[in-house]
């Protein structure tokens, strides 16, 4: 990775929870099913065995990905941001576009982004454009629908 994998404490906890659930919960159950199915004889037409092996590969792939992401993670608590007057990681920003449409966005780690929920990844074009902005600043963003200009009207951070 060429850039840090910034993530909030809540986002890291979510990754950790998924890892633990797969590793200690679902994977042992699938291993048990595959072991039982293997003991039933012919494996070529044994659905439990074939599905179980496929699901094990999926789980192992996901566990590897989660493990790499957690290892590369740099947990940043936005509540401890030193400069709350500017947009940095974890900030919740209220912006207004040229048509006076207001949007509220929170800049989070790429692994915890949810555009529909107003949580955009730190490396998304909109987040890159907003970084370092202060209230009253205008930022131009190149989006798939075309270039738009936004004014930052409010910046908040979570309380510690």
From TrEMBL:
Organism, as annotated: Sphingomonas gellani
Keywords: DNA-binding, Elongation factor, Protein biosynthesis, Transcription, Transcription regulation
Stated family: Belongs to the GreA/GreB family. GreB subfamily.
Claim: DNA-binding is one of the keywords in the record: yes
Single GO MF descriptor: RNA polymerase binding
Limits of the Transcription elongation factor GreA/GreB N-terminal domain: 5-75
Name this protein carries in UniProt: Transcription elongation factor GreB
Job description of the protein: Necessary for efficient RNA polymerase transcription elongation past template-encoded arresting sites. The arresting sites in DNA have the property of trapping a certain fraction of elongating RNA polymerases that pass through, resulting in locked ternary complexes. Cleavage of the nascent transcript by cleavage factors such as GreA or GreB allows the resumption of elongation from the new 3'terminus. GreB releases sequences of up to 9 nucleotides in length.
């Amino acid at each position: 990775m060429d850039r840090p994998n910034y993530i909030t404490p809540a986002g890291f906890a979510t990754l950790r929870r998924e890892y633990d659930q797969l590793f200690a919960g679902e994977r042992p159950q699938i291993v048990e099913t595959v072991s039982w199915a293997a003991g039933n004889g012919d494996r070529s037409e044994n659905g439990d065995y074939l599905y179980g092996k496929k699901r094990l590969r999926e789980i192992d792939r996901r566990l590897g990905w989660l493990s790499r992401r957690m290892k590369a993670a740099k947990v940043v608590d936005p509540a401890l941001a030193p400069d709350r007057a500017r947009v940095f990681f974890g900030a919740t920003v209220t912006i207004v576009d040229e048509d006076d449409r207001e949007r509220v966005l929170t800049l989070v780690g790429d692994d915890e982004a949810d555009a529909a929920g107003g949580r955009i990844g730190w490396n998304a074009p909109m987040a890159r454009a907003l970084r370092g902005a202060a209230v009253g600043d205008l930022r131009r963003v190149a989006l798939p629908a075309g270039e738009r200009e936004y004014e930052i009207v409010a910046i908040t951070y979570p309380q510690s």
